[in-house]
Design goal:
Helices cover 26% and strands 13% of the residues. The protein is α/β, with parallel strands linked by helices and 163 residues long. The longest helix is centred in the N-terminal third of the chain and has 11 residues. The two termini are 24 Å apart.
Length: 163
């Protein structure tokens, strides 16, 4: 699993970072060295920030994830745990990203509510029933809610002209 907590694009990923005259390397090169040291060829599950079109163009062909699962859901623009995820990730809000994912055959795996759950094992990534946790918090056993989901308030900002 590869978790990236940055919307950084190509230049930020490939440029060497020098801090206090110490060269700390380029993030993508550092990742490659770490993967090599761990004898990894790929990360099957990639959990990036939501706006990562330029990052996807670099990371997917380099690392080869099998699934893309966004994080920071509901953390921006409103958070109401007991009301449910207020705006889910929708494919039509990120057409450039979906084009990159489609080009490489990487599915978008996005929850529609808090505590949607998956298991990843040798059979791949698959959803699992987590109704006991969800209903104990007042959330529906499946699907969105109990509050209605609206459009993402950042929908127009999820992809930019440079993506």
């Amino acid at each position: 699993m590869f978790l990236s907590d940055s919307g950084a694009g190509r230049p930020e990923l490939t440029k060497e970072h020098i801090v206090d005259e110490e060269n700390r390397g380029a993030p993508l090169s550092n990742l490659g060295h770490a993967m090599e040291a761990a004898d990894l060829r790929t990360f099957d599950v990639w959990q990036p920030e939501s706006r990562v079109v330029t990052q996807a163009r670099v990371v997917i062909p380099t690392v080869g994830p099998r699934y893309r699962m966004p994080h920071h859901l509901g953390a921006r623009g409103g958070f109401d745990l007991f009301g449910g995820l207020h705006d889910a990730v929708k494919e039509d809000e990120v057409p450039k990203l979906m084009s990159v994912l489609d080009d490489f055959g990487v599915p978008l795996v996005a929850p529609v509510n808090y505590f949607d759950a998956w298991v990843y094992d040798r059979r791949g990534l698959r959803p699992v029933d987590n109704r006991h946790v969800k209903t104990s918090l007042g959330l529906p056993a499946s699907g969105p809610g109990p509050n209605p989901q609206g459009p993402n308030p950042r929908a127009g900002d999820l992809e930019g002209p440079d993506d």
